[in-house]
Design the sequence.
């Protein structure tokens, strides 16, 4: 009943007018981003490789004994416009992730193995919400609040961390913000009530000046 | 009381500082789109023609006995940033629009003439919501769900179809997705439970390979 | 220099006026949702337990030899308003996830172990984008498109699956939409071009009527 | 190969956990709306009738010789959360729609029959963009700008009008805002530069006081 | 315990991968805007000057005896993507801001000094909501509605005006829209019910033609 | 030509069908908020008072020698759904606003009088962007970043502060988050590298325990 030659005509007629059907918008990361994300890479140059990120593996531990492998939009342009990003996080026994914030992202910790103690501090009542997590646990750390994590267990802990709200989440590490730059020491003292000696000591550790 | 020469000064002074008042953002479809749409055409080159689409007419019926004339952002750049698009739809007696989905748009059928049977299938309980529509009826088909339409009446049916949620809605026709490409036949069988002979037959009809 | 009694006054004065600082909005899932999500649970009843989901574990395999454990807003109210959700996915050797769509969510597969072949079909050119994934891979399957997965490897495959765009993603399984309900068989035939015998057979398998 | 009793188990297991899959959110218009729309009607009470509006027909002409039949969320709760609404518009020969604005909606005029002259005025350069439309034409009138329409043709004109940006668009009719209320006449004069006699006359016509 | 040379390695390793952390998106106002705003200026060229606007001062009164100094995105690119803008507003005794609308912005008047009478007209019941404000008052004028202001006090009034919803709010002044352009006088009469003599007179005042 | 009795019919017919035109959505702050804000107060109970906030005045200085008067949605329900809020800020000579963040809001400082030194620290390069502001200056402090302010001038400084992005912005004061609660001291040490004596001292000052 359906004649093949008619079909061909149909196929052509239905695919031709849909020039710009936007199934996806892979980031063209060489162009300037906008508040809504990067311009889209031309669909004609997109292949399956654009949808796959292949380096989501454990990194080398840093001096805090954890590693962090980002899959943000700059590493994985398929996240463009999706409003989330991911990272692989591994932390050795005794490792600590110092207090920090993500200005524009809620953190979702999805445990893979080991035991991780994570906590955040609310802004209104300064309550510390803290929990020791293991495989099978997910924890949500609300956007923009100070939080930390540490491995108080007896084996390496690993997690997939999702950042909801940003394809390129910022990370503001408290110590680096206070002591790892040229923030004037007298001003640090005034705005934190820390003692000058304490500031001097940590400026030394974190290579700050001022 | 109001002196004209003062007025002139006022007119100049009020129009000059408003360099970029954005009453509209006509798509510059030659530039790369972003997740929020195309960059805006320069306002100084915009005329009334940019706000009018003149080809919203019945098209030629395809082999399914319906025609579809899109007014998407690529045809009508005034839709840029508005989050909707439109199409003119006409279907002959006996015509059928096979099962398909629009990934990013809720379909709103606004009947003009004739009688059209339209239906969609929900995802949770697989309920078929189906209705025969006539002039004076509007039907909403929720975003992303499989749906169909057919003319079981005795005269041509016509409708204005609005796509809410996208300026360039995608259309995924089930038969073309399964049989009109190089989708490996064994894989089609495995992921649909269709019999190999059925797949082979329809691959023949829809010009698929694999 | 800072007197403690003054401090106390300060603490009271700064915490008192911030009655409704919204650090988070845990879903009150007993209330009716709105298009933007559930109303917020009263902050005074929120504890750390509200931020932790403890059942993100492998489920029992179904007849397709895979299991799927959702952490959607109904299971994990902390996802309310975040625009994403998660699931634990495990698939035995030979298991297949039949073709399906998520109307309102982009799927992000984050491999944990084993080997998984996943693919999706674009709407414009009906291209099959397919890839065999292993640990260390992430794959993005764009919103609303038909996709599938299968374990063609030699061991169980496991993944964390993130749904970007919805706290309660819909799942429309093609076979259930066609054959697992009371969708009129003649209508299925007309809108899919499948043979009546094929439809009858699969209606039998999937317990459909009509 | 697939045993029916296993299937049944599967069907139950896949449908049970998806308690709140949100394919749609029909407005519960008896509850208070939020900035994102009305709460959703309970899915268990939704039928196909909720997706169909049956009164999209020509209304009775008013004294301006046009009729306007709204399908806004209060009349058609299926539009909840979609960000658009519709109306049927019919205008007799010589009819005029006086200058008005829609605060929160871009108007899209889709001509059905006859000839309609429509125009809007930009805010920066006060340019009048005006066009006489006929069947097959669509015109976009940007959000919030003063606009008008009139039938200068020789037969009744009809159109489907879509409001993009609002499920319940506001309509501010210039004459009613100035003359159809208790707006103090001296204040009207001061803020419009209209002559007192003109104001008095139109206050009389439009039943205003003050 | 923390060795400085290790720290240095850490600092480098944490800063290097974050190529595009988006703390801010200062407008590159020489590029074409998109519906979501201007592309971002390259972060490497951003200095503290980009975050400071230095000309938020009283302007020269116009013939209506008020001045208006905009800090919109074109003047202050730091507002890009924030969805608000600001202006400094000063009005002499007896000054009047004629009726006007902002299509895409809710106006928030924050009084600094003097006394200002402001009012807006609702669209549904044509109610005039009017209030005389003084220092310590904030008033919200909803998006897109006709509103006015005047100084009926005994000293200059000043306010900071915030526009919520737009980085470049439009201003449609009723008199200029009707009389300050080439809007055909017969058409003005038809669509406003103003008398031809009134139109002619104000066309003269506002330098309109037609 | 226009007969008054016809007009009356028109007025009734145009106002009657617009039952729910949403010109505004004043918060009903006694109901539970949603992720998009509070439900709307019934329009029939709204008066001009709902649009005016009358307490935007200088408060009593706290021990840091500044005062802060919020006009957030809980104080001023007219901000519901607008995505911004305001506060009046006054700081005595020598006053300091200690380091803090707003999780969900960009701060816009609009100077009224005096001289204020404000600064923020970026997350990627830990750069301190700092500037001394005076009347006529606006400064933008991006969302979620640590920032401070102090009055190093010779007179009181005053500013209007707008929070873009939230109707109820959170305020996380660093010292209170670290020392003004029961955050375990050993954990504070581990996650900040501060010395135990320093922590003990400031726990004493800020009334913390643990």
Sequence:
């Amino acid at each position: 009943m359906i004649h093949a030659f008619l079909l061909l005509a149909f196929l052509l007629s239905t695919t031709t007018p849909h020039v710009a059907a936007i199934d996806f918008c892979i980031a063209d990361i060489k162009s300037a981003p906008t508040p809504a994300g990067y311009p889209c890479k031309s669909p004609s140059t997109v292949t399956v490789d654009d949808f796959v990120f292949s380096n989501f593996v454990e990194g080398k531990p840093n001096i805090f004994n954890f590693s962090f492998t980002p899959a943000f939009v700059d590493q994985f342009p398929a996240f463009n416009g999706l409003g989330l990003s991911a990272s692989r996080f591994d932390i050795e026994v005794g490792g600590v992730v110092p207090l920090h914030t993500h200005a524009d992202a809620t953190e979702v910790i999805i445990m893979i193995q080991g035991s991780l103690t994570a906590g955040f501090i609310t802004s209104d009542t300064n309550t510390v919400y803290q929990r020791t997590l293991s495989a099978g646990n997910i924890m949500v750390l609300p956007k923009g609040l100070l939080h930390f994590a540490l491995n108080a267990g007896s084996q390496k802990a690993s997690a997939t961390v999702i950042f909801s709200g940003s394809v390129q989440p910022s990370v503001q590490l408290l110590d680096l913000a206070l002591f790892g730059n040229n923030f004037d020491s007298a001003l640090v003292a005034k705005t934190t009530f820390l003692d000058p000696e304490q500031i001097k000591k940590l400026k030394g550790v974190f290579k700050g000046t001022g």
Q: What stands out?
A: Chain A has four helices and eleven strands. Confidence is low (pLDDT under 50) at residues 1-21 of chain A. The longest strand of chain A covers residues 84-91.
